[in-house]
Amino acid sequence: MGFLDSIERGLEKAVNGAFAKTFRSGVEPVEIASALKRELDTNASVVSRDRILVPNRLTVRLAPADFERLRRLGDALLDELTGTVQAHARQSGYSFAGAIDLGLEPDDGKTTGMLEIVSGTEAGEVVWTAVVDIKGKRHALRRGRTVIGRGSDADITVDDAGASRKHAEIVWDGTRAQVSDLGSTNGTTLNGRALSSALLEPDSIIDIGATRIVYRVLAQPKGRA
Fewest CB atoms less than 10 Å from the CB: which of 48, 92, 199, 200? Predict the structure, then answer.
């Protein structure tokens, strides 16, 4: 799970566009996530029976103090927020005209604790990229076979005594991925269930030894992937 997930469930107050909190020192990531989801819901447009289009360009405008504080979280924050937007769109049956372009901007007109989402739609060709997040580090999966284990000859090496040298592999064909256990000593689980081989869905959780691996699929503009 990302660091947003553990606190998002308890969020009761819906956020629409801009808001201010009383007795707060600043905007929190979970509030941005809620505002982004509300922005998609508010701006969803039915373009056909099977397609509901939502904005893919999303800018979070913040007071300078909030912007500086949140910017220090780096790419991890933007990755989590983008993942939240993708998951909400998938659950709601929304689609994007192009890759998600999400960023933070300072706004001198905002006071600490306030935020505003500015959104728009921009069409563009996208490339789907598969990645795995392991202990705060992101690894892109190449097409074909990627071996994960504690051995130096694995494609992705994990520092985990409970993992075998070549513990598991993920095969990505550019569209779908499959995870397989490679005869490891302690086995591999997918979303809490033991496996020998299984197809991967976005945001699936793979456990090998004491290491948690989160599989994600990201949309990127063609040429930037």
Answer: 48
